[in-house]
Amino acid sequence: MAADVDRYRRLATYASVTVALILIAAKLATYMATGAVSILSSLMDSSVDLLASVVTLLGVAQALRPPDSTHRFGHGKAEPLAALAQSAFVAGSGVFLAYEGVGRLVDPRPVTAPELGIATMVFAILMTGGLLIVQRWVIRRTGSMAIAADSMHYSGDLLMNSAVIAALALTAWSGWPYWDPIFALSIAAFLVWGASRILRAALGVLMDRELPEADRDRVTTVVKAHIQARGIHDLRTRSTGIGQHIEFHLELDPHLTLAEAHDITDEIERELRAAFPSAEFAIHQEPAGLDDERLDHRIR
Q: What angle do CA 138, 10, 48 make, to 5 degrees?
């Protein structure tokens, strides 16, 4: 099962790099033929996609390395680091595109061969749509943050390519040269907004943000459902980049032997692992009713 998950992650990264390379070649040829800044915007985005996809590929490869003597928690946070780099690439392309769009507003230029540009964008939409199907299939099975970030800006590409088609069509129909830079500026704003979303998600993992409340409630429910469990406290959770880390104090009957407490803990951990197959668990057993200092009391 773990080997399948790793293979799925690699499949998504290879597909992403391949699609980016194909689209860069197609859009570069089209931009040289049309001179449309909206095509340039899409070319810039595909170039960023390639950089981001390569970073994702390297990040996923690093994240999948097993724990070693210097990284006993594994290398999973290479994934949010890759997502962080993606946010920088996406934001940078948005700023550059905004600069180009403003320049074309000041000095508008005619768009030639808009039909070629539209055909290229339709091809890009089909390629991107196929990649998104692969990526989302992989995300459902792996929960990969880096691939999810990659998928998010490829989702934006669908909107961007549609906007480029609209800009070229409106320019060809009306002859008004400002449709092209106006759409380019809109796409630039969308890129910066997407970069901010990737940034927030990556920082949440790097700063050990708690898992969603629904996941925390599920942990508590599974633990309390065991007939021998007397309670749970000091629950702490975080994403590891490629999985989750879950730790808590398990309250048990104080008269149990150490071996009995160990067996009960193993049973609860097996039940939790069924709910969180990619998680690592750290469970501390405590006698129920013990009055001690708790993290829960210090958190407001």
A: 90
